[in-house]
């Protein structure tokens, strides 16, 4: 399932609650593009980065089950298409 698709430089996804641990995979054309996987344990807790996706160094990450996850894309320069999928 596509969790994020965008062509803007920075983007923050809506939060979701995974049913189990998750695997996330990035497809980006720029080496500068990163996507932070952020989690929190309560709706009043601060978001914290638990992993960062990058097309070369970390194209796939495994994330433990958290009550809430979201994706924060950065440095997607030049209007390129950026996608992140999960295994649901």
Give a short overview.
With 88 residues, this protein is mainly beta. It has strands at 2-6, 11-12, 22-27, 34-40, 48-54, 60-63, 68-74, 82-86. It has one domain (2-86).
Q: How many individual domains?
A: 1
Element order: H for helix, E for strand: EEEEEEEE
Main sheet characteristics:
4 strands, antiparallel
Q: Note the gap between the termini.
A: 6 Å
Main structural class: mainly beta
Determine the strand fraction and express it as a percent band: over 45%
The number of distinct helices, counting runs of at least 4 residues, comes to 0
Strand order of the biggest β-sheet: 1-8-3-6
Shape: globular
Low-confidence region ranges: none
Arithmetic mean pLDDT: 96
Give a count of the beta strands, DSSP E runs of length 2 or more.
8
- Rg measurement, Å: 12 Å
Could you estimate the helical fraction of the residues in percent? under 10%
Give the arrangement of secondary structure elements.
Blueprint: E1 2-6, E2 11-12, E3 22-27, E4 34-40, E5 48-54, E6 60-63, E7 68-74, E8 82-86
Antiparallel strand pairs: 1-8, 2-7, 3-6, 3-8, 4-5, 4-7
Task: Please give a handful of descriptors for the protein shown.
88 residues; mainly beta; four-stranded antiparallel beta sheet; 8 strands
